[in-house]
Structure formats: structure tokens, C-alpha cells
């Protein structure tokens, strides 16, 4: 015959039911994540490595979310075992049901639980405010560089513009896919924050009257789950802001390059029928060189921004 549970079994079973519901909600987050996959070419093929990096972080996020779901499932199982008067099968018959050796001893006050949503606010703000982004790319486009926007035929026909036209094509962002992924990540972040908050509420309100080593060990164990779910919520928010930020940076660079090519096309058209041939060649080469230098400056700013972004994502 099993030992009597340390608290009314009905309280333990009701709490287990609440955890079971939270576990199902965590599972549903995984389904949403499957729809939030960032395509490899979403930022253009020049920024494909960043899309791959975001994809890797998403896989890490999914694994953590699944782990917390499994943790809640195990907690539900153990709560029902405790309510039935069963023990956890420890060979040394420790009185502490939940913890490994050394935990649940009461050294940590019951109310001191780590993991609040505000802990991650500063880090999320760095992604939301795009502190990693070069100032020239912080605003979409470049008004000083975009003199003409309607000279597509001339742009294609002007041979010195060809390399820059190719460069602009490699920065072609799929805005619809990026926006859809960002929205899903924002929704996942909000749901994960609510799950963590609801778990905190359950831990504070469901278990009145439960005292002792088992209770302390259980609260300590679940505190790590609360903290972890808040952390994956913050990561989801950062991934959403990352998609928006990288898409904006690539778009700003592309618009700047297109604007420079348009300027080059206008300048070439202006000298095409004037002056001796050698003068035209010198002028053409000078324009092409100057425009290329300016365009490469934007690409350099993009590369430095993405390097800062990788560092912020924890990649060296």
C-alpha cells in the first residue's frame, strides 16, 4: 500500500490537468512554427547564409519547445503517481519525490523563482530597434541616390550597369514570405509568454496547502520550465524581428544600388552624343568607377551589419 500523498490528491490531479492543457498549447506552438520556416532565398541569394542561420535558430527553438512540452508531460505523470500514493522508485527512498540529490532541501526560498518576461526585454529591443544595422541602411532606400526610378529599359541596355544590375537581383527580397514568417513568430512569442505566465499562475494558485521538501523541489523544478518558456518566447520575438530587419537591410541596399544604376544611366545618356569619342570613353569610365565605388560602399555596410547581426545571434 502506497504512502499517503502530502496534500489532497484532488489538488494534485487538478493541477496536473492544468499542466496537461498547457502542454497541449505548447504542442500547438510547434505546428505554427512549421508554417514559419524562412525560405532560403527569402532575402535574395546574397543573404542566403543569414536565412540559413535563422533556420538553425528556429530548429533550436523547436527542440527547446518540445523539451518543455515533454517536461510538463512528465510532471503530469508524476503528479498523478503522487496523488495515487506512489513514490518515484528512488532506490534510497528519498523523501523528496521530484528532485535529484541535493535539491528540495529548502535552501532556496519558495517564492524566489527565476524567469520573468521582463528579463529579456533589453535583448528583444536590440532586435526590434535594429541596433545592429548600419545607419545608411536603417531607412529603406536612399533619397539622395535615387534620382530616377523609371528608366528600366535604359538600365538594361547600358552595359556598364550590368554588374550592378546583377547585384541588385541578388538582393531581391520575397517580402510576402518574410512578412508571413515575422507575423507567425510574433504570434508564437505572444502565445509562449502567455503559457509561461499561466504556468506561473498555476504554480501559485493550484497548490495551496502543499508544504515540505517535495513542494520545494517541485517549485524549483517548474521554475526552470517557467524561465525556459519565457526564454523561448523571447527567442521567437527576436526571430520575428530578425526576419523583418534582414529583409529591410537587403531591401535598403538593393534600392540604393538600383538608384545608383539609374543615376549612371542618366549620366551616360547625357554624354552619349556629345564631345569626341575619347572624351566619351573617359567620362563613361569615370562614371562607372564612381558609381561602382558607391554601390560597393552600400554592400560593405550591409556585410558589416550582417556580421553584427550574427554576433548578436551568438554566432562568431
TrEMBL record:
InterPro entries associated with the record: ESAT-6-like_sf
Region of interest (Disordered), ranges: 83-117
Taxonomic superkingdom: Bacteria
SUPFAM superfamilies attached to this UniProt entry: EsxAB dimer-like
Residue stretches of biased makeup (Basic and acidic residues): 83-96
Protein name in UniProt: Uncharacterized protein
Lineage summary: Bacteria, Bacillati, Actinomycetota, Actinomycetes, Glycomycetales
Amino acid at each position: 500500500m502506497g504512502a499517503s500523498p502530502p496534500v489532497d490528491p484532488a489538488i494534485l490531479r487538478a493541477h496536473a490537468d492544468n499542466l496537461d492543457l498547457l502542454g497541449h498549447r505548447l504542442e500547438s506552438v510547434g505546428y505554427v512554427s512549421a508554417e514559419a520556416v524562412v525560405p532560403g532565398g527569402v532575402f535574395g541569394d546574397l543573404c542566403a547564409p543569414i536565412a540559413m542561420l535563422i533556420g538553425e535558430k528556429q530548429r533550436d527553438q523547436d527542440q527547446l519547445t518540445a523539451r518543455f512540452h515533454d517536461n510538463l508531460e512528465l510532471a503530469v505523470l508524476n503528479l498523478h503517481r503522487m496523488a495515487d500514493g506512489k513514490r518515484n522508485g528512488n532506490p534510497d527512498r528519498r523523501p523528496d519525490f521530484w528532485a535529484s540529490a541535493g535539491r528540495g532541501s529548502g535552501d532556496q526560498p519558495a517564492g524566489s523563482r527565476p524567469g520573468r518576461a521582463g528579463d529579456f526585454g533589453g535583448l528583444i529591443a536590440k532586435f526590434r530597434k535594429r541596433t545592429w544595422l548600419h545607419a545608411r541602411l536603417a531607412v529603406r532606400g536612399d533619397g539622395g541616390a535615387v534620382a530616377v526610378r523609371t528608366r528600366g529599359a535604359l538600365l538594361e541596355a547600358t552595359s556598364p550597369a550590368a554588374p550592378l544590375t546583377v547585384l541588385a537581383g541578388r538582393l531581391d527580397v520575397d517580402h510576402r514570405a518574410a512578412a508571413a514568417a515575422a507575423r507567425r513568430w510574433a504570434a508564437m512569442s505572444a502565445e509562449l509568454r502567455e503559457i509561461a505566465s499561466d504556468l506561473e499562475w498555476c504554480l501559485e494558485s493550484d497548490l495551496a496547502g502543499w508544504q515540505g521538501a517535495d513542494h520545494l523541489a517541485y517549485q524549483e523544478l517548474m521554475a526552470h520550465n517557467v524561465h525556459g518558456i519565457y526564454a523561448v518566447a523571447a527567442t521567437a520575438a527576436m526571430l520575428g524581428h530578425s526576419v523583418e530587419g534582414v529583409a529591410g537591410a537587403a531591401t535598403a541596399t538593393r534600392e540604393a544600388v538600383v538608384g545608383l544604376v539609374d543615376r549612371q544611366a542618366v549620366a551616360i545618356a547625357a554624354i552619349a552624343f556629345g564631345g569626341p569619342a575619347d572624351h566619351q570613353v573617359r567620362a563613361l569610365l569615370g562614371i562607372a568607377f564612381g558609381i561602382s565605388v558607391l554601390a560597393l560602399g552600400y554592400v560593405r555596410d550591409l556585410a558589416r551589419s550582417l556580421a553584427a547581426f550574427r554576433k548578436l545571434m551568438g554566432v562568431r
